[in-house]
## 1
Amino acid sequence: MLTLICVDGPGIVHAISGAVVQAGGNITESQQFASNDTGRFFMRLQIETLAARGVLEAALAPVVAHYAMNWRLDVVGRPLRTLVLASTAAHCVNDMLFRQRAGLLPVHIPLVLSNHGSLRDLAGFYGVPFEAHPVTDAASKAAFEQRVLRAVAEHEIELVVLARYMQILSPELCAALEGRAINIHHSFLPGFKGANPYKQAHARGVKLIGATAHFVTSDLDEGPIIEQNVVRVDHSRSPAELVAIGQDEESRTLTQAVKWFAEDRVLLDGARTIIFR
Amino acid sequence: MLTLICVDGPGIVHAISGAVVQAGGNITESQQFASNDTGRFFMRLQIETLAARGVLEAALAPVVAHYAMNWRLDVVGRPLRTLVLASTAAHCVNDMLFRQRAGLLPVHIPLVLSNHGSLRDLAGFYGVPFEAHPVTDAASKAAFEQRVLRAVAEHEIELVVLARYMQILSPELCAALEGRAINIHHSFLPGFKGANPYKQAHARGVKLIGATAHFVTSDLDEGPIIEQNVVRVDHSRSPAELVAIGQDEESRTLTQAVKWFAEDRVLLDGARTIIFR
Amino acid sequence: MLTLICVDGPGIVHAISGAVVQAGGNITESQQFASNDTGRFFMRLQIETLAARGVLEAALAPVVAHYAMNWRLDVVGRPLRTLVLASTAAHCVNDMLFRQRAGLLPVHIPLVLSNHGSLRDLAGFYGVPFEAHPVTDAASKAAFEQRVLRAVAEHEIELVVLARYMQILSPELCAALEGRAINIHHSFLPGFKGANPYKQAHARGVKLIGATAHFVTSDLDEGPIIEQNVVRVDHSRSPAELVAIGQDEESRTLTQAVKWFAEDRVLLDGARTIIFR
Amino acid sequence: MLTLICVDGPGIVHAISGAVVQAGGNITESQQFASNDTGRFFMRLQIETLAARGVLEAALAPVVAHYAMNWRLDVVGRPLRTLVLASTAAHCVNDMLFRQRAGLLPVHIPLVLSNHGSLRDLAGFYGVPFEAHPVTDAASKAAFEQRVLRAVAEHEIELVVLARYMQILSPELCAALEGRAINIHHSFLPGFKGANPYKQAHARGVKLIGATAHFVTSDLDEGPIIEQNVVRVDHSRSPAELVAIGQDEESRTLTQAVKWFAEDRVLLDGARTIIFR
């Protein structure tokens, strides 16, 4: 799987496909997009080849240099090394672990880090190591974030998933994880600010509630959007029922976003994502 | 069709159903809801009876008096007298007029009022009177609103539909039409303030765009929500394409809201609507 | 929670609500439907009362006798005693067990019966007893079905869920479980008969695949429909991917159907279901 | 816009992109798909170039010859010459004509042919010529089909849309229009054969009804599927209401299929369609 980003211009596809032919490869899937907003060109290619990785890299080298490409070459289906951050809510973590084991999500989760102990058994059932480190003040928060960074280094983590981790990350950690941390939050039409949005949504009688998966940035809940879903509700739903419905949307939206990321389908174009579905 | 709202308490259903039995009627459809938020009770009953309207009203009179009910008795399927306000956009007006003629929308539209002349032919094709009165300053705006109020009186209008009417109504007109004027606007996840929201939605790469139909209040775009829809979009859509997609959602959302209102399915519970689908 | 079915006629609502008033109760939620197809009347009432169950039953007794009602009185939120039948597929069982524990599904599952041992650990993690009895011939099949009937008796089972149980039930077992066994199967537009429907769906290039939850009858896959869902797919999906997508729809559709059944929202009207959502 | 189909093999993308570079063009959008089922390769390219069409064709000529490509070169946004066949139902015709005029559907409709006169005014309002030729027996049916073929020739028709045209086309006409005629029909889960499927759907209590747009083949309602949609219904809907709901799905599904076809997004792969959305 080859993904690449560069400044748009003529001849890119020809140059890339020439390198693939030269390495004895065949392009089996290809998607591209030229952004009018940023003038950048995005491409995702699935290549079938018997050649060694080095041969393909050598063929590509002059092309990526000439176009100053930001590129990434990966083996299709390789599980992405993924760190999960959690608090007490089980729904997102359960969905990810179940799908990992069932082979429905191409990730390898070497560790779940939580600020609570309540999901220990769930992780244990799926054979995933679990650590709980309470976060109660600035010092314990800093310690938790240091543990995250150490885990990222130790396990060569490629993606950090905030599976309803209920702490705000420091700007430093956001910066360190830029482009490789995904968060999930509820979404409403219209949006609600402040505490207890489900209660506000109930009070306004909204007819749709949903969830948004997005990249983590220091601007809370405002990172580039990866995936969104909504579901229909009506006036008879209590705030507690809205929460339960919203959690289902959170699980499936987060899992979908992680799957696309793990399949190299998510590319960043400034504040937007390009999703090659 | 009988709809009623009163303070919740024991015996309401029994009292109402007793009055129906007394008038020789049969309840063929019934929906009710007790609001925990406001302590009010809402009911919608479809009654089959050979008795004259007066007989049923006489039987109901002591009940509605005893419970201090806000009530409404209507003939099922009677077309609602509906005034349409429009500007230049044709999509919502076309959908309403086509459905009116096809018998899919139980409304009678005696007049379309617009601040532009561009939809005159469309209204003419459907045989609906049309008047254009330009709104260019405070005086012409006041004149337009006076024309609205006169039309409401002349035609005994029961519902005013703002079918992409692009002028803000004065607080006085909002108050005069309270609970019987429906507006449509686009909706996004997350919401965007300010001019050209489709451009903002494009810039943020939103994955869902939609529309909200709501009652008009003086608090612009914040009236009680009647219906919402969304549709999925992706990064390849230009702002112009987002507009076209959003317009389809606007048409079908507005038409749905009008249909429910005309069928007496929409009741107000403070800032929320109860929709008896 | 009171549900009732009887021949439609005047005065039913009045009689029932009178009994409720007499027992000092208050109707907090009510839904009804009169079937033009079968002439039957269906009602679901949520009643709030401080009176003992016996008091309410005594007040209702003359009414239900007079109208020859098929009725059921239940406590709201009481977990339904549910037996799960499974084979090797984990997705539906996992979803039910997770939701049971999370309090999202009002069921109590005292036992999972399977014709394979592969889900033993999953049941064990959720603390649910599990038995595997291989079904390889007529004798072992009869033994399995006897075990089902004994389990239904021992645990006073109210609902049997076929959570991708891949054996056809005998007509005798279907009859014994009539109206209290729910099955799930995939659904396509158009439908496909015969083996490997996902492969056929791929070959025809269908754009929507889904799932249907229905009551078990001896007419395989043709029982009254409780719930259906579909999801959009495109030409790039392999048959294996269609299977994975279909399984997600199966889980959520089955869980939804079970939830409605457990909440007394599913009533039978001949070959159709009335769903009081 | 360049679309092409050929036997899959190495070097195709490189060869095509080389021809584009040679003609001074730039690829602004590109989608491809290699079918495992048929071994064919499909591609759709949007090319920006100042060169004359002949220059691009000359550059492509050796490539398309070498790979024995089935190809098509078109100008983006050019309205497709489209013949509409209709009977009495207005919903699909109205939607197409409204969108054509609003610039939302890139088609030019020079003629509506119908076996009834009832849509004459609708076509007239949109300024589209209309002819009615009753079809009452074999001779008048043959005459109608001859008129279709003459109209196809006279207006150089590229697409024939059966907008609820309620006559079965002869195998000869199906063959003559192969790959360029689109039909719409209702769809249900499960499917129903025979007359009045909405009545059957009501009797079975289906929860989803929808529509399928497909290419016309002599195998009635079984041509390659282009687009499908469904919408949720419940037990309270009468057969007549199901029809009205189904018609909305028919309109939007047919219009979507026509739009994709007009944008060269629909390619045939045996019994399946490849849709480059």
## 2
Amino acid sequence: MTIHLGAFLNAGVQGTAGWRHPDAAPGFLTAAHYVRIAQVLEQGLFDFAFVPDALSVPRSLGDSFAPAVKWGSGTPRLDPVPVITVMAAVTTHLGVAATVSTGYHEPYNVAREFATIDHLTGGRSGWNVVTSFQDAEAQNFGQAKLPPRPQRYARAEEFLEVTTRLWDSWSDDAIVADKESGVFGRPDEVEGIDHDGEHFRVQGPLSVPRPPQGYPVIIQAGASESGRDFAARWADVIFCSHESLESAVAFYADVKARAAAHGRDPDQLLILPAATPVIGRDAQHALAKHEAFADLVSVEAGLSRLAYHVNVDLTAYDVDGPLPTLEEVGVEGHYREVVEFAEREKLTVGQIGRWYGARTEGRLIGSAADIADTIQQWVDAGAADGFVIQATHVPGSFDEFVAEVVPELQRRGLFRTEYEGTTLRENLGLARPERGEWKARRK
Amino acid sequence: MTIHLGAFLNAGVQGTAGWRHPDAAPGFLTAAHYVRIAQVLEQGLFDFAFVPDALSVPRSLGDSFAPAVKWGSGTPRLDPVPVITVMAAVTTHLGVAATVSTGYHEPYNVAREFATIDHLTGGRSGWNVVTSFQDAEAQNFGQAKLPPRPQRYARAEEFLEVTTRLWDSWSDDAIVADKESGVFGRPDEVEGIDHDGEHFRVQGPLSVPRPPQGYPVIIQAGASESGRDFAARWADVIFCSHESLESAVAFYADVKARAAAHGRDPDQLLILPAATPVIGRDAQHALAKHEAFADLVSVEAGLSRLAYHVNVDLTAYDVDGPLPTLEEVGVEGHYREVVEFAEREKLTVGQIGRWYGARTEGRLIGSAADIADTIQQWVDAGAADGFVIQATHVPGSFDEFVAEVVPELQRRGLFRTEYEGTTLRENLGLARPERGEWKARRK
């Protein structure tokens, strides 16, 4: 089998250490920056670029925005939708996926936005569905606090039902555009949805015809129980992060089984863990590169990053003591990883901070051959259908991966040597949803 | 003095007759279509492209979506934001403006979207602020009916205050990005807004640094009393439509005086009426071209268009009788124009329909020299600082205007021969707002 590759790209600075990297490009607010990255990803035959998001400047240590601004930790963040549109405008095969929260948008607008991008890109769009995770986000939208997870997922559930129904509100051949007769469309092929639910009342139809892909590719990353159930039904691609092969194998088996239990073909749900390659001439050279990268982060910068990821102000805790158990954290997956690692290594809060600031997801440190070995091992073990490649810095990390690891994967028959199709679904090997597919995916 | 030119471009079909034009390009859902148009507009040194919008498939005759779909009347409509992003990605000087409603979005999201586009385009973005005008739009967002105009403008007022304050939440030099020290930003140059109003509670700061233009160019088109007051304070550009030079002169004087009364320099508020050129070898040839265009519309298609513009189902009225007075119409400017024309010409509802279907705003029918004459006359009379050029069909209308009228305007010294600046504000001759400008513009 062959693997699929996404590229994880912040629309702004890359992590707390990434912008400080000596080779990091400075123009992270300019179109040229994203054009440059899109081009190397397409040259490397990546399936898609994936832009995460959050709807606030993170408020972290001391319940303040200051640390995030001071250290470039989680801010700035451009709106990912125009960023992926620029990346798509200069490529012809690269898929482009943006994160949009179901918590603080309207489903009509989101359905329309992605339907539009799917048309403009000829079917290369993806939507990473998130429910948000910080109080600071809630506070930009009239709420005092982030709603509890079950409430966020209940809204997301209804949100997905409305958006998929809106994408289905035009049949694939509703437009005739016959200049001779003057008939533009077939009214009986366009219908309202008349949705009247707990969170939304939406009449429809969408003002945009059915997307080329039927539905844009739906990506989800929730690691919680609610997240897994949601993703097993709605997602085409699951993005996850695992510190060990064992936990990745268990997650893979669990989610594929959930998909099958919902009547889906498990092969039609791709699981792509995060991987951050640091590539050297040999293992030692790569380790030295990683160490130099980790040295770019201060304890405070790292704790600031952790504080906003878990949505808890950590200044209450002694930096020389252990991290107490936190309740109701923001990103559960990240928190679990921290607890596991800190207990194993007996780390203090301060040490956790330094580690977390330079933490990358799924570190792959070694030569290109070493990295290809690990990728092959994970795929053979049933842990992954491919990976979402993260960068210590841009564009350098992607340049190196495309120049060194991609050819190695191709030599082993693990990765494509040309794009198989024109839409993102075609390249991912995913079927195009028939009109009405939403009925099978909803709860 | 020289004039400014915008280009009015539906992201979808151009009017009810436009898609039927023999030369109309068919690919109105593809990026290539908008790329092609962006390139000719930049070649013609246009200040900006302007994409209107509405958040529904129009429901018109018989309270049904069917006529809009059948005649291609107001549908489909792509989301304008990705469309202008594509147009900006392939140009270097053309400004790009998208319509986004204050009625059915969140100010944090809208502020962020335009700040992002302004960064990605190096300061070429504009936001056309609308409050929506159809019940069918309200019904896609949980409302049974469009709220009354005063309520819509009260929300818009607060919306603009929040978005401009969010754009000001970072100072222009908040980012230092010093790789050596590890200091990314200056926390005391970034502040929340802690807005707590009638419609919105927004903490801020925005997660995007201050836009290159300070504020993206703000465009407004309201012709009502509330619209004029709002525009005189907030707008940089007013887009309007007038059937006669007299009404245009009166409107121009009124709005400039309102701006001055609010303490603004009236020259810093540009008034650009709509103009739809139909260019012939001579007047007779142009008239024949216009007639052929008007013949493309049926009575029903035209009435469908009028019905959704005024937000009233017109099937209750006898097609052979006069149009009764309508209360609480959608677009007041359009309605007033219809009434004026129908009374003058003694038209029945059916005749109004046929006329309205092919109605264009500010028809300029003649040779290139005739059209330049009228443009000059309007500018000299104090009716306009330039025009927003509308197309009977695309890309043909813009191709012809750029090839024939632009050189004529240049010969007369009425239009630029190269772009003056790099940002849209620079090309429009508008000052860059200082941080805090919102205080002077709010009510």
